[in-house]
Amino acid sequence: MDFLTIVFILAVCALGIYVINKETKFIWKIQANRKWQEIQPDIKSINEMHEKYYVSRQTIKWYDKKFTKSTKKEFETHKNNYTAYVDFCNSKKVPIKSDYKAFAVIIEETEDVFLSSREVLDKELERAQKSYDLEYQNLSVSGEKLLETRKKSLCLISDVENLVNSIAKKPKSFDVELNTIKVKKNNFQTTLDFAEKQKINLEKGAIGIGAGVATGGAVAGIAPSVAMWVATTFGTASTGTAISALSGAAATNAALAWLGGGTLAAGGGGIVAGQALLALAGPIGWGIAGTSLLTNVILMINKSFKIQENKRDEIKRMKGFTEQLKEVELKIEKISIQTNSIYIELLNQKHDCLKYKFDDYSTFTSDDKDKLAILVNNTRSLSALLEKTIEDDN
Questions:
Q1: Which of 293, 275, 273 is nearest to 283 (CA)?
Q2: Is pLDDT above 90 for 221?
């Protein structure tokens, strides 16, 4: 069998697979449309219940158990039919016709009507925890994104250093600037080395946090990824010492205290709060443990923080944590935008100045000298941003 024949056979097979997938996708869409038509009465009934019992606040007669149970059962049937449609669309990767997120809120609000006051409070606490968990994930993504930008910046700064150092007879002022840049670059590299050691320690479980507590697994499962950006993003420990300058348990505790909103003396949750917040992110966001772990975490918070038994206090505290994380995320994003902006500008300038490598500065035109001076100045600005923390932004 010659080469062209093989290519032809493979092309026919590929075309066949494409056509089959196309036809299968078309069939799924037809089925999804049929299911969509079938659940229209369910959607209508849920909207009517939402309007009657939630929007208009018409009280369900709790003393009429038969009425309550039948109405709740009817609602559950409508909800399950709608959920089945959504699950089908997601499994077959076809578009959902309705605004699922908006309708999910309607379902959730209507469902609350059928709950007792205690159940409503439990659900509100669960929502507060989920909201916190989502914001925690957003914060982690922002922190890791900033760290990656800084790592790229570190490489770019080194490239510029090599370029400028290769130029003969350059001004002494350049040497002064390069020394300043080198110090900042070395400081950041030291911090990276520290973070890497912390990450390894956490991965090995060589720290004492959560020892003998169910949350230990959650902390160990999440903290390594956090350790890599916490040390470079947050500023100093409660003692005033840079987190990156600490070592061992002291460094870990300082980082956890930051995650917990600062030390207890400063009005934050302290180290235990940091552990709890890390652990809370696990069961919901990363799925590394089940509800039993989450229950233990809540119990630990109640015990460690000495919160009143009233769950409203817990909800309020959790919402407070969420708002704090949002504020921190905004500060991280601000630093990230600044760093990325200068990085892109400097990268373009470096490419323009590569022609000067190994040249003699005394032969440069005034335009060449200006370009090189701007290159050095922007490199210094980028090196300064390597050390910028959210403390500096206060």
A1: 293
A2: no
Indicate the SS3 state at residue 236: strand
Query: Region 44-64: what's the mean pLDDT?
Result: 75
> Number of C-alpha atoms within 13 angstroms, CB side, residue 107?
18
- What is the full DSSP assignment across 75-143? HHHHHHHHHHHHHHHHHHT---SS-HHHHHHHHHHHHHHTS-HHHHHHHHHHHHHHHHHHHHHHHHHHH
Radius of gyration of the chain (CA): 29
**According to the model, what pLDDT value does residue 210 have?**
39
Question: Distance (Å, rounded) from C-alpha 161 to C-alpha 154?
Answer: 11
pLDDT tens digits, 225-281: 566 677 677 654 444 455 555 555 555 555 555 554 444 444 444 444 454 444 444
**What number is the average pLDDT over the span 157-165?**
96
Query: Phi first, then psi: what are they for 360, rounded to 5°?
Result: -100, 120
Q: How far is residue 219's CA from residue 209's CA, in Å, rounded to a whole number?
A: 8
What is the rounded distance in angstroms from the CA atom of residue 305 to the CA atom of residue 314? 10
Can you tell me the mean pLDDT for 39-52?
92
Confidence of residue 115 (pLDDT cuts 50, 70, 90): confident
In 354-365, where does DSSP find H-type helix?
none
Is the pTM higher than 0.70? no
> What is the mean pLDDT of the segment spanning 274-289?
38
Cβ burial, residue 227 (10 Å; 0-12/13-18/19+): buried
**Residue 207 confidence (pLDDT) above 50:** no
Phi first, then psi, for residue 236 (nearest 5°) are: -120, 160
Q: Could you tell me where the beta strands, DSSP code E, fall in 118-246?
A: none
Bridge partners for 247 per DSSP? none
Question: Two tokens at 89?
Answer: 């669309």
Given a contact cutoff of 8 angstroms between Cβ atoms, the answer to whether 297 and 280 are in contact is yes
**So what's the pLDDT on residue 201?**
61
Distance CA 3, CA 95 (A): 41
Residue 66: count other Cβ atoms within 10 Å of its Cβ: 8
User: Which tokens hold the place of 32?
Assistant: 């999804």
CA distance between the termini of the chain? 72
Tokens of 371: 């370009």
If you search the block for the tokens 């934050």, which residue do you land on?
268
Helix axes of 216-233 and 172-204: crossing angle, nearest 10 degrees:
180
